[in-house]
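lol forgot to send this yesterday, sorry. C-alpha cells for the thing we talked abt
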C-alpha cells in the first residue's frame, strides 16, 4: 500500500479521535500556520486583510473555489497545494461531521427521553397504556393547540410517539425527585396520571401532589377505594373512576347512550363538552340570558353551572350565575372569546 495512503488513513484516524477542545486548537493552529506561510510567501492579497484571509480559507475548505483570490507566487502555490487545501478540506469535513453528529445525538436524546426539560405551565402525562395513552395525547393535542406544551413521562421502554408534537422524558421511577425534575413536575400546570396498575397511580399522585400542590392533578383508577384514599390525602385531586360498568348498563337500558357519551368526551368527533369561567368583571346574570346567547351566537348549549355550591346540571332558567362561576357547555369547538354583554 502506498505510503501516502497509509499516512492519510493514520491522519484520518487521529482526527476522528480528537475531542472538541483539541479540534478547536487544531483549527486555530491551522489558521495561524496558513497565515504565517502565506505571509512569508508574500501573498499580500490574501494576508493583508483578515476578512479576505478567512474568506479564502472557507471558500477553499468548502471546495467552492470562486477563484477571486488565489496565490500568485510559486512558493505560495506550493503552500496552498501541499498544506492549505489538504488541511482545510480535512478540517472542514471533520468539523461538519462533528456538528452533524451533535445535532443527531441531541435529536435522538429527545426521541429516547434522555434530555432534561425546562418548561413551565405544561400538561404532564405520567404513564403508558399504549393505545389509550395515544388517544389521550391525540385529544390533548387537538384541545391544546397553541396553548400549553404537553410532556409525556414514562418508565416503559418506548420512544416518543409524537416527536414533533410533544416533549418526552423517560424515568426510572415516578417517585424519584431527581428523575421527575427532568419532566419539570414542580412547574406543571396540569398533571394527568394513568398507569396500568392503580397502586403505581396512587404513589405517583401522592408524590406529584407533594412536589406541586398547585397543579391540577388528575388520576385514573379502576378501583374506587384507591380513588377515595387519594382524595383523603389530596382533597384537590380530581379522581377519574372507571365508568365501563355504568356505560354498559346505560347502553342496555337506553340504546345509543354509549355513542352519545363517547362523542361528548371526544374532541375529535362531533359535539364536545367544554368549560368557561364567567368573568369577575361581569355582573350577576340568569341562566336564561346566557342560554339564549350561547345558542344564538355560538350554536352552543349550556348544560351545567358551578357557582361554588357544587355542580348543577340542567339548571333552572332563573338560576343565578355569579362572577367566577364555572359554565359547562356543548359545542363543536372550544369558544375562546365569548361576548358576555
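and heres what i got for the seq, position by position
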Amino acid at each position: 500500500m502506498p505510503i501516502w495512503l497509509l499516512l492519510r488513513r493514520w491522519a484520518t484516524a487521529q482526527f476522528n479521535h480528537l475531542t472538541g477542545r483539541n479540534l478547536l486548537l487544531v483549527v486555530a493552529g491551522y489558521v495561524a500556520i496558513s497565515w504565517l506561510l502565506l505571509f512569508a510567501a508574500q501573498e499580500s492579497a490574501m494576508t493583508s486583510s483578515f476578512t479576505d484571509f478567512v474568506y479564502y480559507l472557507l471558500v477553499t475548505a468548502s471546495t467552492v473555489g470562486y477563484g477571486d483570490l488565489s496565490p500568485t507566487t510559486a512558493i505560495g502555490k506550493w503552500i496552498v497545494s501541499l498544506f492549505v487545501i489538504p488541511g482545510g478540506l480535512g478540517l472542514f469535513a471533520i468539523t461538519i461531521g462533528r456538528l452533524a453528529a451533535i445535532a443527531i445525538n441531541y435529536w435522538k436524546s429527545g426521541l429516547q427521553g434522555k434530555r432534561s426539560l425546562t418548561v413551565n405551565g405544561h400538561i404532564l402525562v405520567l404513564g403508558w397504556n399504549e393505545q389509550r395513552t395515544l388517544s389521550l395525547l391525540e385529544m390533548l393535542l387537538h384541545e391544546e393547540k397553541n396553548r400549553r406544551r404537553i410532556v409525556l413521562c414514562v418508565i416503559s421502554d418506548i420512544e416518543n410517539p409524537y416527536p414533533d408534537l410533544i416533549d418526552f422524558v423517560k424515568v426510572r421511577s415516578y417517585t424519584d425527585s431527581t428523575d421527575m425534575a427532568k419532566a419539570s413536575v414542580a412547574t406543571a400546570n396540569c398533571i394527568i396520571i394513568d398507569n396500568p396498575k392503580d397502586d403505581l397511580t396512587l404513589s405517583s399522585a401522592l408524590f406529584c401532589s407533594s412536589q406541586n400542590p398547585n397543579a391540577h392533578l388528575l388520576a385514573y383508577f379502576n378501583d374506587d377505594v384507591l380513588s377515595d384514599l387519594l382524595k383523603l390525602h389530596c382533597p384537590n385531586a380530581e379522581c377519574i373512576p372507571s365508568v365501563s360498568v355504568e356505560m354498559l348498563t346505560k347502553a342496555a337500558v337506553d340504546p345509543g347512550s354509549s355513542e352519545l357519551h363517547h362523542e361528548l368526551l371526544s374532541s375529535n368527533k362531533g359535539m364536545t363538552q367544554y368549560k368557561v369561567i364567567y368573568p369577575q368583571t361581569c355582573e350577576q346574570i340568569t341562566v336564561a340570558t346566557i342560554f339564549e346567547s350561547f345558542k344564538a351566537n355560538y350554536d352552543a348549549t349550556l348544560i351545567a353551572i358551578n357557582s361554588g355550591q357544587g355542580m348543577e346540571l340542567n339548571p333552572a332558567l332563573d338560576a343565578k350565575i355569579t362572577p367566577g362561576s364555572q359554565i359547562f357547555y356543548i359545542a363543536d369547538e372550544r369558544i375562546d372569546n365569548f361576548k358576555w354583554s
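The radius of gyration is 32 Å. anyway ping me if u want another try
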